[in-house]
Amino acid sequence: MLEIRGVGKSFAGVRALDDVSFDVAAGEVHALVGENGAGKSTLMKILAGAHTDYDGELFLDGAPLVLHSPRDAQRHGIAIIYQELNLIPELTVAENIFLGRERRTATGLLDAAGMDGAARALLDRLALPISTKRQVKMLRVGEQQLVEVAKALSLDAQLLILDEPTSALSEAEIRHLFDVIATLQAEGVTLIYISHKFDEVFAIADRVTVLRDGRYVATMPAADTSPPELIRLMVGRPLSDLFPRTDAPAGDEVLRVEDLTLSPSKQAGTRTVGPVSFTLHRGEILGVAGLMGAGRTELLEALFGVHSRRRIRGRLFLGGRERRVASPRSAIAAGLAFVTEDRKTQSLITLLSVRHNMTLAALRRFLRFSIVRRRPEEAAVQRSIAQLRIRTPGPGAQVNTLSGGNQQKVALAKCLMTQPQVLLLDEPTRGIDVGAKAEIYALISELAADGAGIVMASSELPELLAMCDRILVLCEGRVTAELSRAEATQERIMEAATSGLPKDTAA
Amino acid sequence: MTEAIDRARRAGRLLLRFQSVFGLVVILVVSTIVAPVRNGENVFLTSRNLLNIVRFASENGIIAVGMTLVILTGGIDLSVGAVLALCAVGAADGMMNHGLGTVPTVALVLALGAFVGAVSGLITTRLQIQSFITTLAILGVARGVASLWADGYAIPLSFGEGEGLAPPRFKSMFGGRWTIFGLDVPAPVFYFLGVGVIAAFALRRTGFGRHVYAVGGNATAARLSGVNVNRVKLVVFMVSGLLAGMAALLHAALVNQGSHIDGNGYELNAIAAVVIGGTSLAGGVGTVAGSMIGALTLSILDNILGLRNIESEYQAILKGVIIVLAVVLQRVAAAGTTKRETG
Description:
The structure holds 2 protein chains of 2 kinds.
Chain A: E1 2-11, E2 14-24, E3 29-33, H1 40-47, E4 55-60, E5 63-64, H2 70-75, E6 78-81, H3 93-97, H4 112-125, H5 141-153, E7 159-163, H6 171-186, E8 190-194, H7 198-204, E9 207-212, E10 215-221, H8 227-235, E11 253-262, E12 273-281, E13 285-289, H9 296-303, E14 312-318, E15 321-322, H10 328-334, E16 336-339, H11 343-347, H12 354-359, E17 367-368, E18 371-372, H13 374-387, H14 404-417, E19 422-426, H15 434-449, E20 453-457, H16 461-467, E21 470-475, E22 478-484, H17 490-498, H18 503-506
Parallel strand pairs in A: 3-8, 3-9, 6-7, 7-8, 13-20, 13-21, 16-19, 19-20
Antiparallel strand pairs in A: 1-2, 1-4, 4-5, 9-10, 11-12, 11-14, 14-15, 17-18, 21-22
Chain B: H1 2-34, E1 37-38, E2 41-42, H2 47-72, H3 80-97, H4 102-126, H5 131-149, E3 155-156, H6 168-175, E4 177-180, E5 183-186, H7 187-205, H8 207-217, H9 219-224, H10 229-255, E6 257-258, H11 266-276, H12 288-307, H13 312-337
Antiparallel strand pairs in B: 1-2, 3-6, 4-5
Helix pairs in contact in B: 1-12, 1-13, 2-7, 2-10, 2-11, 2-12, 3-4, 3-5, 3-10, 4-5, 4-10, 6-10, 7-8, 8-10, 11-12
């Protein structure tokens, strides 16, 4: 159906994609895998008409395909769902789905009822039980992503490109999405599926293409390959151990939380989270599990003083001393650091340089008479870049020119600059590839071994099971289980995560 | 390889940073060409005329520096012209009717400007109101208070020693000329350059400067990084008010009076200078040097149009065109340097 012939693209003299050729057969689910910077997103942007100056040729159903704009691609039946969401937060679900293609009545007015109905049908196909009249900003990230899927479905695309569609979805939602993919495939739609998650690739893909460093490596039927082989092809070497977690003896208590409660916010319509109590020791990694909306993020935010002080009750002890954490600033001063779920909107100032992002939270360290001492700052930045193996043209490069995995490392580096006692991590590997993941896992293990206490919230159970010494399971804001490393299994976590729910929604 | 990209990026950024300089050079060249010639001398290029240009750029330039800080944090300050009027009335009333000396007058006026800025800042941050609205309201309040203060009249300044006269030192400090390298340089030029240098240094080299860019770039990320976002915003509004106060001192010394209608529309001139200088109204991107060049550019434009006896209506139209052109050019340059690459 789609032939890619010798496609290449350069950015500022750097070859991001070089002489890539492969075919996508009609009606197949074609997975595209590769590390950060392998060129997957660049290739997809070419297919979506977002990059128009590239080398090589494209053929769609045998005919040469030349795209001048994303609209052009849409006209050819190509739709893409980017990893970074492209919704307008202030508009409703239905308005977002039909943005730019609004339906009108005979009198020229907006056909709100018609669009609502059509949006409802699309959401039903995705089994997403939210109102079409809700503002997108009121939805969780995972729900927003499903709205993006609905938007692409509304285009009746013949070729649907999904760039990491599951990075923010819960297991149940992923299963829904896979059902939808199966339905679409049965209807004759061709899908290109970009993912870092091998279980997904093997669950849905017919064939897999591997890119590395902007070059084509191989295409093979998914049935004929295996995760170790894919990893080897992606990184060019076997990745012996994804989770280099060593059991370290737990040290002294570093953080104790007593009856921490976050009361609901009136504007956002959230539920109460807590009361939560736990003790964290030096060198320990505490996992926080739960379905989407269970309150994982809110728990970390409450610890870090993100919300209004009036909403938070409970006591916090750091190193045995009670501390009042009223704001992120006081949290940092108390020795906490927080790597947020969404690095682009919450963690990084993408227009600024790697250097300025990295030292922002710890700037005080580099000040003398409130003037930044650039030599120690530069030394610290260089150390960090080396230690975290951040691939950047230099410390002065704008953060938004880096790949997702490297951006995440910058966000982590910024937190580590404050030399925290306790590191709060929210989805630390969201939307980054295996290679970067392994590096981040290694870093987390190193930090724990060096005596930091780590709280890690994640929707990916394998990573929690592999990394954590204990796991707190949340369900609707309450702790429903605290499992030790020995007790924790995927089944027990899922059971606890759904134990408080009525039976029909728990499925 | 990476060095080459870095160099290309740096060159791009350099171009972006100095595109306002190119604009300045273009307008200088054009002005020189179209300027009238009298007695074999190019009127535009006389040192007297050039110094006048800088002098008239100074008031707007000082206000534009404060405006730059506010805009960098993602806000805007529409009250600067009104604050200037309030401070000018205060300065005139203090010296003429209350026998204040130069130093107490300066201190009080600057404090008054900073105080009004603080009110704007506090309302904006504590009540979570957009600064556009806050400062629009403060604009009205400040002009109203200035008018009440002076009973609706301008307070004229007469300089001299004794009861009911303003200290001559005030005139020489803010309205006089200081001789340097054989040139009689108008005093405002020194305040303009001094303010510019201090603000540029503060933005580039201090923790406060880093915080200003961080708040404008992404206020949420800044807050989660421990930046006291509200305090940063409060401080930039105070600086903006204080600099409007400083401009009021220069203005009063220039026109020998303080009036509630002083500084009418100055906020728009300042915003124009900031925009021509390459600062993004969305916040997070821009420089003080750019705004200073923007103020100079506008002043040259006024000057050459005046020398050519072009009606003020055409002046206004031309200014509008140039502002739009400046923004378009920036966008073109920015698109060239910040092409995204993801893998």
